[in-house]
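Q: Can I see a sequence and its folded structure?
A: Here is a first one.
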Amino acid sequence: MAKSRFLYNFAPEYNRIIMEKSIIGRKEEITRLKKYIASDRSEFIAIYGRRRVGKTFLIKELLEGQFTFRMTGKENARMADQLLNFSYAMSDFFSEEKVPKDWTEAFRMLSKAIEKMKEGTKIIFIDELPWLDTQKSKFISALEYFWNNWAYYRSDIKLIVCGSATSWMLNKIINARGGLHNRVTHKILVSPFTLHETELYFNAGGFDYERQEIIDCYMAVGGVAYYLSLFENDKSVAENINALCFTKGGELCDEFDKLFKSLFKKADNYIMVINALSTVGKGMTRSDIIEKTKLTNNGNLTTLLNELEQCEFIRSFVPFKKEKKDKLYQLVDQFSLFHFHFIKGQGIFTKDYWMKKIGTASYNAWSGYAFETVCLHHIDQIVEGLGISGTINRPCSWAYRPTKAVKENDDIDDNLKVGGQIDLLIDRSDKTITVCEMKYSDGEYEIDKAYDKHVQDRLRLFRDVEKTTKTLQVAYVTPHGLYNNQYARKVKKQITAEHLFRQI
């Protein structure tokens, strides 16, 4: 114990290195934060991301022992309780016992305390900032005055704010229209772990999962740090999922509703959109969403869709050779997809429900699409694995639906009377289009004669419809590669778990 105390008091740099090493992944975020902290100007840094993704852990582990002031907002607390909490933090850092009467006085107390300090960088960390903005508190105006009229004019203030209420963070801080407009100097989105980071996490926790199990885990709960922290290393992935999601009192049984209510005001509207998108795996247009949800087509819907995308629950994309007005929205959050497929409205689950579900028709249908979604989260790894990262490329999808007139026209080629779609293609600058076939399998994936013909028919349809002169190159994305047969030998590019788990 004495040795530990010595290191903390006399070797702070050593301790910072140790704490940084405890952070899984987050290399880019760490690099950026270090750069901003070391800058020669005051910085206003907003950290955001979905609930339980690891925002607070990142800041605390990276900067522990360096804070000039740190406090955390209290959920569903009155202004008086928030100010009392502020006074406790002031007492801890400055031995200031006074309870401020309002937030203007609170920030003045903080600025005066800092002004008495010696030269050097001052790191202020306010966590769960949205919870401080209680009704009639005028918190935002006080924060605005603190930054615009004091901190901004110094060169030593590093104000870091963080919050899980994403819509509030985006509207009131990052995209603010009032006095804080364009005042945030840097914003950092903390995303769920990649497969690579998830593997690092499990390895650090003493798990002995193979990559197949890690993929199965990722398909169900994604790379959300908190969800992964609930896994026990003496259970298989399937056993953990069963305990967390399909057992009475399981910690993720009611997570979905908590998740959206913590992130967004009027969460019901967000859930309606997510629910609608969960029914159409390949994406919906804005008009489709309006028709399905009955939401009004106005700026509020635009904001809602933007916020869902910024929180990485959905993605928007323009299909191949389509216009911006044809943009599609697709649900890509792994846990939400899993929730709607297996948890919502299922009632009481039988013993070992999830283990018994594996291998059934509903499981196979879900796993195929869930793996495709995992691939969409790892486009960079796929592109690098294909060896085309040096070319300009645009990942997108393609779909063709013949009109009634086309179907009834005897002069039109029969091939054009049949619809088809490609879930992922990469339009490249080197006169090539890579068509990706994403296939989930717990062993080598076997292409049979029928599926080979299906792929060739789609390529022919794509060429006929789009009149492209580019070379069409088929690539398969599978966990374990392809079973070596005559059809596999025709495939020139394969992406496996080895590529998907790479650090980019």
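Q: Show me another, different protein.
A: A second, unrelated one:
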Amino acid sequence: MKLWYSISLQVMRQRFRFAPSPTGPLHIGGARTALFNFLIAKQTNGVFILRIEDTDKGRLVEKSEGYIEAALDWLKLSPDEGPRTGGEFGPYRQSDRLDIYRKKIKELIRAKKAYYAFDTKTALNELREKEERRGSKFKYGYLNRLELDNSLKLNEKEIVNRIKKEPYVIRLKIEKGVTETKDILRGNISINNEVLDDKILLKADGYPTYHFANVVDDHLMKISTVIRGEEWLPSLAIHKLIYDAFNWKTPDFLHLPLILKPEGKGKLSKRDADKGGFPVFPLRWGENLGYKELGFLNVGLVNYLALLGWNPGIEKEVYSLKELIEKFSFAGIQKGGAKFDYTKAKWINQKHLSVMTYGAFDLTYPNKAIQLKKHYPKHYNEIYNEIRNRITLLNDLDNELRPFLENPNTYDNKFLKKQEKNHNLLEVLSEIETSIRTGGLNKLKENLYEISKSKKIKFSLIMQLLRLSFVGNMSGPDLFFMAKVLTKTISLKRVLALSYYIKKNNSL
């Protein structure tokens, strides 16, 4: 009774699935598909399901399934049901569902909605080549199937004898007519069945094809809306015909627009990403770094992926996952492809970093947080506030925190060579040293400005040499904030270190 009641509750809830094939790492296009399914599931108090479609044994890649699950976990898109979490509609790995597919294929055979085909690869290739020479394309369908080698022209005894001795496939029997389908974004779509093949449902190795297993699983798992990439739109008519063959209700379908190359022409590929200097995977895959390793926050990447093909209808572009769940709707999904913009992705990531709390920083970058707290227990929060608006990626923290945690060990020689032609740098540094030593740090800016006026030294040069002393180059946090945090002792030490470096290398 409890089990029935539990299942009944789940059936009443809308159910959405992400169904990748473990043929390699999760592409950001797949990650976006998972995200859109996750968002609508959570918004409607529905169920988000992960199903692994691993029936194409020739294309399987070791560790791919584990990678997909790890990537979804990092993106905070963990499924409610799946191979790892289980559920009442499993198994959730297609290779564990073979008995189900064999049972269902027999139902279609008995209903005369499918048939055995014994055609050899050689024979079919010859037919394809023949049609190509005529300038047309070979199709295995109602116009020619009675002329081909299949069970439609055999009696039951002949069929039994042949399936015992010969390899075969099982094909869907598509009749003459028009198949009416519907996509949420594109409306009604009509397909003349004449252009369709009698698709293979069960391969010679006994494994189902994607088309057959996909439909069977979506039905048995009570999927209410299928959200998938636009590349599957040409398969919609075949899938509708399989539903019709079983007399099953067809779920709603929504085919997401393509993620395009940065220039806007063609589907984004790994080659395009390599050329543009950005990844296409959430996590590292072999030698290929992912967004995590490059320093993206998971919420930053999720935020950007949500905006690829979806528009909330307002100018706001920075969202937490909770806000995306609240705002997401099918109405905001666009039909046209979305150009990938890595600069925009980094900008969004920076916005999330700029509002990251101390606690989140501690969790995300624990080693640096521990170091900062050890060296600057009184200024930890101030340092974090100073640098978080300066970083675009988490990895930028290394450079931004280095001046606080390490003394410079190299200096910008190019700058020194240029300035030494017109200025006595040692004298300027001596003035800076005297100002810090006698005047302290509270009014350092004012004191250095007075030196600039009285000694007729450009204030910009004084500031540049001070920055070079503190950081080693011309970038970094606010100088006077640094001086306060570093203390008088360390500030003097760094100014003197630069003076020593110039003396030692007076032939720069």
